[in-house]
Design a protein that fits this description.
Strand content: over 45%
Structural class: mainly beta
Length: 123
Amino acid sequence: QVQLVESGGGSVQAGGSLRLSCVASAYTSSRGCMAWFRQAPGKEREGVAFACAGDTSIDYANSVKGRFTISQGNTKNTIYLQMNSLKPEDTAMYYCATGFHGYWWRAADFDFWGQGTQVIVSL
């Protein structure tokens, strides 16, 4: 069983920045693919960003392109999400996930999840 721990959430004003971190207890594959998802109250969990260590498989949801940047640490089991120019609609619980086996934007295609870190963006 892989455990993931997110950190870095908080409350910011619109236009501000936050950096989320996630550490996994183990690798789940040689590619080291991990993703960030978010879920706002009453909405489905949506894929935000995706990356695999050592290759160019990086992708973002259209709603965050140009504002969010996903990156991996020196080890395959650490991932970050730099969030700039935050908007109120970015308010959600943010989760990292690994154990990918399908389409990165589909929550059902990931086996392991963290507990989430809350991001609140106010006007």
